[in-house]
Write a structure and sequence with these properties.
single chain, alpha+beta, four-stranded antiparallel sheet, 5 helices, 4 strands
Length: 170
């Protein structure tokens, strides 16, 4: 597991702004967080180098692309060994219907978020692709009725940094 990185209040403001809009030009980002453009760019580079920022993306509306039905599938695999988990993960991530996959503890081993055209497409995915896997022992699917956008990751109030890093600090 990666060590956490010490972030100051400006780092968190940069992260919040970029999580809400990863396409912000550096000049605009710098204005929003109260830094000179060069200092802002330097901080963003440092956040990338330290592994805090791991990428950027755009959000696509699945319904606008013809994939109007989304579902979450709770899946149990057996045996729950590293080899089986790795092979199952590789299979699922190779499916065009897959939006995300979580390996979890609890009743299910995996939570799979899929986007499909309709209930027939969902049935085909579940029966023809998922149920045909020998390691899949059990699964249940739930159709997504509403999805709210994920909030930008921000620290809880009690963990929020109170200070801004001084020049020359890490």
């Amino acid at each position: 597991m990666q060590e956490s990185v010490e972030l100051d209040s400006v780092d968190w403001r940069i992260l919040e702004e970029l999580q809400n809009d990863a396409t912000l030009p550096n000049r605009v980002l710098a204005e929003r967080v109260g830094l000179a453009a060069s200092s802002c760019l330097q901080r963003v580079r440092r956040l990338r180098e330290q592994g805090v920022i791991t990428g950027s993306h755009i959000d696509v509306n699945p319904a606008a692309t013809g994939l109007a039905l989304e579902a979450v599938v709770a899946i149990n695999v057996r045996p729950h060994t590293r080899q089986v988990v790795d092979q199952f993960r590789e299979f699922v991530m190779g499916q065009p219907e897959t939006r995300s996959l979580l390996h979890v503890s609890g009743q299910a081993d995996f939570l799979l978020h899929v986007a499909v055209a309709d209930t027939k497409h969902l049935q085909e995915f579940l029966v023809d692709k998922l149920a045909s896997r020998t390691e899949v022992r059990h699964f249940t699917s739930s159709i997504v009725l509403e999805q709210l956008h994920t909030r930008a990751l921000t620290p809880p109030q009690h963990l929020r940094p109170k200070r801004r890093r001084r020049s020359g600090e890490g």
